[in-house]
């Protein structure tokens, strides 16, 4: 399998007043094409810092990130990033927010942009909401719109930072299922950050657990059969084994 995303010896240090804060130290990760990798870690262990580096949004203090064999030197239209917080533009309606990656990519006619955005809004269950502004949508609908916007540019790699963390349990399950439907068969590579073990095991085919400063304390394949349903999973011995192992790794990583 080919590695799509490769991080080597990544260290990120922030300057704060007169001292330096190390958020990530000597981090290495290789992500295979078409895989769904979930990254699990306690708050503050460097997950967002890692994703920002993988997205090319921030520069590492040391080390390198390569995407499709080329060093990443800044944001790349082929890498979609769904952050924890809403980044929809409040002055654009939903349709025009979703069209944005196509405008950035260029060379796509307005009619085609509208058609693509409308099809994506339909896929994420937002039919008829294209003319609404972000403030007129619920939190869950804004997440769906953000998901559609990320997909509009047809990125081959998707980075997601606790995208459903703030939603109620029911909506979260719906969006997890929707994401899997969109991903399966797409060939896209996903790196999905969460602090929820169940979510990580439900979605991924590989789970990476980070401890303090992004130290990798566990890295395992998830061979649970798809489609996966939470209720059935909870009584699956392999799920129970993985859950126990990952909980122990999380605990070890924070000590
Ligand atoms: N811009 C910044 N300036 C200074 N320190 C920062 C900055 N960004 C992150 N940090 C620090 O780096 C560490 C890792 O932060 P990061 O946001 O990557 O963690 P996280 O695992 O994503 O946390 P959470 O799950 O709470 O989002 C923290 O100690 C944080 O305070």
Automatic annotation (TrEMBL):
Source organism of this protein record: Streptomyces nanshensis
Q: What CDD domains would the database entry show?
A: ABC_NrtD_SsuB_transporters (cd03293)
Question: What GO molecular-function term can you cite, just one?
Answer: ATP hydrolysis activity
Q: What are the residue boundaries of the ABC transporter domain, all occurrences included? A: 5-237
Pfam families assigned to the protein according to its UniProt record, in alphabetical order:
ABC_tran (PF00005)
The protein's name: Nitrate ABC transporter ATP-binding protein
Q: Which of UniProt's keywords are assigned here?
A: ATP-binding, Nucleotide-binding, Transport
Classification from the root reads: Bacteria, Bacillati, Actinomycetota, Actinomycetes, Kitasatosporales
């Amino acid at each position: 399998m080919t590695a799509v995303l490769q991080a080597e010896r990544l260290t990120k240090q922030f300057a704060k007043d007169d001292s330096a804060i190390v958020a990530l130290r000597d981090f290495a990760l290789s992500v295979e094409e078409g895989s769904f990798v979930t990254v699990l870690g306690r708050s503050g262990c460097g997950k967002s810092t890692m994703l920002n580096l993988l997205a090319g949004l921030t520069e590492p203090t040391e080390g390198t990130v390569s995407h499709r064999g080329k060093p990443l030197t800044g944001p790349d239209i082929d890498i979609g990033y769904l952050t924890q917080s809403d980044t929809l533009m409040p002055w654009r309606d939903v349709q025009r927010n979703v069209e944005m990656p196509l405008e950035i990519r260029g060379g796509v006619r307005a009619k085609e942009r509208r058609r693509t955005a409308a099809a994506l809004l339909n896929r994420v269950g937002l039919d008829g909401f294209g003319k609404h502004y972000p403030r007129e949508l619920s939190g869950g609908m804004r997440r769906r719109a953000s998901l559609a916007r990320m997909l509009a540019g047809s990125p081959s790699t998707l980075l997601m930072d606790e995208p459903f963390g703030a939603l109620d349990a029911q909506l979260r399950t719906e969006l997890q299922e929707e994401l899997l439907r969109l991903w399966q068969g797409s060939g896209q590579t996903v790196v999905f950050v969460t602090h929820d073990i169940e979510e990580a095991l439900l979605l991924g085919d590989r789970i990476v657990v980070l401890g303090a400063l992004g130290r990798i304390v566990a890295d395992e394949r998830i061979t649970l059969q798809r489609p996966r349903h939470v209720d059935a999973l909870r009584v699956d011995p392999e799920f129970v084994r993985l859950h126990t192992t990952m909980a122990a790794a999380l605990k070890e990583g924070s000590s």
